[in-house]
Amino acid sequence: MKTIVINLEDGINAKRILEAVRLLKGVEKATIATDEELENISMLKAMKVARKTPKVSKDEVLKALK
Fold first, then answer.
1. Which of 36, 48, 33, 47 is closest to 3 using CA atoms?
2. Based on CB atoms within 10 Å of each CB, which residue in 29, 41, 51, 65 is the most buried?
């Protein structure tokens, strides 16, 4: 599954565009996301990437924070 984000100008009827997108072949789900939902998605992706990195010691973390 791929995610596409479309930023619309103020005053644009998002619901009409959403209805048109839903009619496209291959579209499984189309919704209007809030800024908070987009932040949560970004955070989840960052955590997924972080899980693949090697663990470091507490001392190394504290040293990097100085």
1. 33
2. 41
Q: Count Cβ atoms within 10 A of the Cβ of residue 30 and give its class: 0-12 exposed, 13-18 middle, 19 or more buried.
A: middle
Q: How many CB atoms lie within 10 A of CB 21?
A: 13
User: CA–CA separation, 18 vs 31, rounded Å?
Assistant: 7
How does pLDDT run across 2-57, given as a tens digit for each residue? 878 888 888 889 899 999 999 999 999 898 888 888 888 888 888 888 888 888 88
| CA angle (46 as vertex; 44, 51 as ends), nearest 5 | 95
0.85 surpassed by pTM: no
Q: What are the boundaries of each domain within the chain?
A: 14-65
